[in-house]
Amino acid sequence: MKGLFADVYIVLLGPPGAGKGTQAQRIAVATKLVHISTGDMFRENVKNQTELGKLANDYMSRGELVPDEVTIEMLLERISRDDARAGAMFDGFPRNVVQAEALDAALAREGAKVDFALLISVRDEELVARLGGRWICRNCGKLYHERNDPPKRAGVCDACGGELYQREDDRPEVVQSRLEKQKPPAALIEHYRKAHVLKEIDGEQSLDAVTAALLEAIR
Ligand code: ADP
Ligand code: ADP
Ligand code: ZN
Known about the structure:
With 219 residues, the chain is of the alpha/beta class. It contains nine helices and eight strands.
């Protein structure tokens, strides 16, 4: 059965900690679009100690981007699967123009395109506070913040009872590097502006207000 958002492709852009993952989880529920997070895919590979995971971890632990070649190959394999045929929401991909062009080309082969590029903007001071307080469920991946969006019981996932953990790369030293190296480059934003699909959302509103603004942007 196709939902209201069938065949819609959305990319979420924004600096580390802007709220892409949290909002993607919420929008996936609201729209039934599959949520594709390259960060989650890399972490899964690290956990399973695959070759890809070992390679990616070297970059992730330094707060650097994993090389495009590897990232694009992983993403293309992911979108070739059946569940991504009828639309998807990308969180953390693309991070630069090379990746954006690879996505455009892959979607074009299926007669599709990026329909919405939603840029979530948040100032650096707030990003540092968000990343420092981020907790994640080891089991289902649900995101929390110790002050802004706490679980009912400290350390325990509301959704599945799983154990919450803090990411290695959310330590202050790595956060600094991520904020220097991983903000969406101007050329990437321009790429989507030129395609007339870019919308900017104020990410410093409440979680619910950001969700509402995003849903309004894709209505
Ligand atoms: P963030 O909290 O910054 O949104 P992610 O979970 O999206 O972090 O990504 C975690 C790490 O995985 C990044 O720091 C980077 O090393 C790697 N990564 C994720 N997506 C990409 C991508 N599209 N290109 C290159 N590296 C990526
Ligand atoms: P990203 O995927 O862009 O790196 P996340 O969705 O993981 O960002 O959010 C980073 C942290 O900030 C999480 O701990 C999340 O709970 C919190 N957060 C996200 N959006 C908001 C918001 N609008 N207000 C307050 N905290 C937020
Ligand atoms: Zn959970």
